[in-house]
Amino acid sequence: MMKEEERVRCPIHDLINFKRSRDEDILLWKLVQTSAIQRLRRIKQLGFSEFVYPGASHTRFSHVLGAMHMARRMLDVFAKNEAMEISADLPINRKATLAAALLHDVGHGPFSHVFEEISDHFGVGRDHESYTLDIIDSPEIKEILTEYGVYEKTRQFFAKEPGYSVFNAVISSQMDCDRLDFLCRDRYHTGIRSAAIDLEWLFDSLRIEQVPVDDEGHVHQYSFVLAEKGLAVAEEFVIAYMQMYHTVYFHKATRGIQFLVHDMLVALLGESETIPQMRATTLSNFIHNGGELATYMQLDDSSILALAHMAAENNWGHGTTLARRFLNRDSYKCFEIPSTVSGNVPRSKLERFRTALQTENIYFIEDIISHRSYKQHAVTDPNFLKNILIKKDGEIESLGNVSGFLRAPAPRVARIYFANSGARDRARVVYQGLG
């Protein structure tokens, strides 16, 4: 039975409240108690980032609570706007949007992205989005959403092409509840001192307005728009996004651990049929039963950690070697290809380098990334309303049109990872010999 008020203490948003007097909060509190949401306590938000930033051990559970809270604040903007066409259905759409914010990460597996790669390698071929839909369709979640009349509306947020609405923008846009929370939360737990976002000023500047979505200005849709005073905080938000990708999400040491764990799992699970202890693990069952939902829901980060410990205590060849390295933070080593004067990857030299490495029989993993930047959609683009919009001098413009420093394309970086420092040093000599 829910108390008159339930509260969760959050280091980012202080108190996140659930009140029995609000019907939407009863729905949300019931969802929080489900095994599907509670499983997220056992999945780290930043995967292997704690190997670089020891404080980054926070979970996807804390993040989805924060994303739900950010969704509330975005939806509260309706109270200070007169949008008659959407106000009539606001209560039911608000409930569905908040439920979607709480459920948006529910389909993630252990160490998220590396696990999806492993699933693909062994032919499971399903991503976390497809598991999210399956979980929403499961009796545990579906019955709660149906009870409050929001099952279909909540599910629509996770369809492949949900289309645009102001409510979809809360869940998926260039400034949605997901990004608003994880940029602040990840910054806090990694200890990064830059990349700050002034949330109070951002929400004080946020409006809902009718935005023209054609060149002639005849067709309008409601969308979130920042008042002109919010230009600086919008730029601050995008800068934070770019900085966090550069310094945290694509940190070379984190990626090195990720690639090592990928190879560890390929080696171990590939031999699981011949090793009785491993064959009995949930991970092995998941791979060999085609990725069924019931087994997937038993998986969390401890599934991979337990397998690594098991392998480290035995002698299972290459998988054991990699498991011991993983537990001792002995990651793959990175060699970053020097970029061209324009900041791009030297493609012709990179191709010759690949060929030379193969000739020298040096194992390598290539990782070409583009540092995240602001993605601009033209007014004629169907995704125009996914832009961050600013009202300047009475006109509603995309942030990219009114902020000069966001127009530069994101530089691309080519990193090559090697099994150890000796292989990396050999590869560096090979690269230098290419001229």
From TrEMBL:
Tell me a Gene Ontology molecular-function term this record carries.
Answer: dGTPase activity
Name the Gene Ontology biological process terms: dGTP catabolic process
Q: Name one Pfam family in it.
A: HD_assoc_2
* Cross-referenced PANTHER family: DEOXYNUCLEOSIDE TRIPHOSPHATE TRIPHOSPHOHYDROLASE, DEOXYNUCLEOSIDE TRIPHOSPHATE TRIPHOSPHOHYDROLASE SAMHD1
Q: Which domain of life is it from?
A: Bacteria
Q: Could you identify this protein by its name?
A: HD/PDEase domain-containing protein
Q: Which positions fall inside the HD/PDEase domain?
A: 56-192
User: Which InterPro entries is this protein grouped with?
Assistant: dGTPase-like, HD/PDEase_dom, HD_assoc_2, HD_domain
Which species expresses this protein natively?
A: Methylovirgula ligni
